[in-house]
Amino acid sequence: MAPRWLKAARTRGICFVISTDAHSLGDYRNLQYGVATARRGWVRRDEVLNVLEAQDFARAVSPAGRKR
User: Fold this and answer.
1) Tell me, what DSSP letter sits at residue 16?
2) Does 54 map to a domain?
3) In a domain, 47, yes or no
4) Contact 40, 3 (CB under 8 A)
5) CA–CA distance, 12 with 7 (Å, rounded to integer)
6) Which of residues 21 and 6 earns the better pLDDT score?
7) Which helix (H) or strand (E) is 4 found in, with range?
8) pLDDT tens digits, residue range 51-64?
9) Three-state helix/strand/coil letters over 45-63
10) Which domain holds residue 39?
11) Cβ(68)–Cβ(58) below 8 Å
């Protein structure tokens, strides 16, 4: 995703998930590309859902939504 789209999403309060789309353990090496893309869009750690503890993640994706 282009950095400008990440920045536009951030201004709207949209959170992100950095995924490798891994189908094997070796595919986890691709995580570096997702992190690099997020950095180019100035995505902050508190805007990435999959860095949360399991309980916090469940709360963030619940129908009640995440309060920022």
Assistant:
1) B
2) yes
3) yes
4) yes
5) 9
6) 6
7) helix 3-11
8) 999 999 999 888 87
9) HHHEHHHCCHHHHHHHCCC
10) 3-60
11) no
Contact (CB, 8 A) for 20 and 34: yes
- Residue 42 three-state SS: coil
Q: What is the pTM of this model?
A: 0.77
At residue 38, the 3 state secondary structure works out as helix
Q: State how far the Cα of 10 lies from the Cα of 29, in Å rounded to an integer.
A: 26
Task: Sort residue 47 into left (φ over 0), alpha (ψ -120 to 50) or beta.
Answer: alpha
Distance of alpha carbon 59 from alpha carbon 11, whole angstroms: 22
Count of structural domains within the chain: 1
Q: Are 57 and 49 in contact (CB under 8 A)?
A: yes
| Domain annotation covers residue 17 | yes
Q: Is residue 67 part of a domain?
A: no
CA 12 from chain centre, in angstroms, equals: 14
